[in-house]
Amino acid sequence: MIRHLLIFMLTLLLLAANEDRPPVIYDYLSKPSVQRFIDKMHKTYGFDKKYLREVFSRAKLDRDTLARYTGKFKRNSTVGSWERFKLHVVNPQTFKEAADFKRKHYKTLLKAERRYHVDMDYIVGFLGVESRFGTYTGDYNVLNALATLAFHPNRMQRFFKNELKHLFLFAKERGYRVEKLEGSFAGAMGCVQQVPSIARKFNEDFDGDGASVWDIEDCIGSIAKFMHHNGWQKGLIAAVPAAYEGKRFKRVRTSHKRMRSLTEIRHYGVKPKLPFPWNRAYLIKTRNRTHDGLWLGTRNFRVLTRYNNSANYGVAIHLIAASLRQ
Questions:
Q1: With 0-12 CB in 10 A as exposed, 13-18 as middle and 19+ as buried, what is 70?
Q2: 326 residues of the chain, pLDDT tens digit each
Q3: Structurally, how many domains does the chain consist of?
Q4: By residue range, what is the domain housing residue 257?
Q5: Are 149 and 157 contacting, i.e. CB atoms less than 8 angstroms apart?
Q6: Which residues of 77-86 are buried (b: 16+ CB within 10 A; e: fewer)?
Q7: Most exposed residue of 21, 121, 252, 305, measured as fewest CB within 10 angstroms of its CB?
Q8: Is 219 within the bounds of a domain?
């Protein structure tokens, strides 16, 4: 009991350190929850206990990752504010890179579009937001990130413990060394940043040389497969901009999870800026420094946010896709 208390106190001290917080050595094997995890992985999936103990003996505590999911929850703290999206993602340089990417990978995009009945421009949008078209796939050690989030209290601990399980299964199925995999602070890997459970479900060999979350052609096929699985309707635009009076919109709560009738939306003084021939929509808000932007989202917009539960994320993908049609 005293040992566990000392370890917990040490963890708190480590988290209170300065902002530059590289992963540090941590005694995971002393935690009962880790021992239970090892037992379950052995009994349910046949993993060798000695192997699992060796892996956890080398796993580190990633303080930067844990800090993102502890304390008071701040909206957009892990997906980015709209101003941040505009600065780093939704800009002329990204639009140019999107057009170049579409030209370079057109045959693969067309193959994915036809096989899964989705729109290639939105596939490009996903790749632009997730990894700058495959050029940045993350430099966090995935094992350290997921072990940290699985075995230290945070607002998504159950989710991350499940992803740690899938990480071991993913590495075993693909023949990877689990301790060598790199990705995001949340354990997402590859050019469409798939967490292990999503990678196991949707990643596929789209070019005949073996499935890989880091292969750009496989990523194109994977995201198309995800869109199709979640009900994407080919040819249906994801969102259109909307107008309202004033600089800030506060008349009703906006949400990418709840549809409203167009009649109700108009009642709040909101009008689509482009033709919108559907009678229901998601009312979506992007907060700029000087004003709020409003959007009317279709059912396809909800598909975008099923990959990352953020309206900002969905609008960013839509704008990259829209830039390709101009």
A1: middle
A2: 444 434 444 444 444 443 457 899 999 999 999 999 999 999 999 999 999 999 999 999 999 999 999 975 455 455 678 998 989 999 999 999 999 999 999 999 999 999 999 999 999 999 999 999 999 999 999 999 999 999 999 999 999 999 999 999 999 999 999 999 999 999 999 999 999 999 999 999 999 999 999 999 999 999 999 999 999 999 999 999 999 999 999 999 999 999 999 999 999 999 999 999 999 999 999 999 999 999 999 999 999 999 999 999 999 999 999 999 97
A3: 1
A4: 239-297
A5: yes
A6: eeebbbeebb
A7: 252
A8: no
DSSP letter for each residue of 119-154: -HHHHHHHHHHHHTTTT----EEHHHHHHHHHHS--
Residues 6+ apart with CB under 8 A from 299: 231, 233, 236
User: Rounded CA gap, 112 and 220, in Å?
Assistant: 7
Q: Cβ(61)–Cβ(26) under 8 Å?
A: yes
In a domain, 275, yes or no: yes
Tell me the HSE value of 306 on the side-chain side, using a 13 A CA sphere.
14
Which residues are CB-contacts of 319 (< 8 A; sequence separation ≥ 6)? 90, 125
Contact between 146 and 173 (Cβ < 8 Å): no
Q: What is the pTM of this model?
A: 0.89
Question: Does any domain span residue 290?
Answer: yes
Q: Could you tell me if residue 273 is inside a domain? A: yes
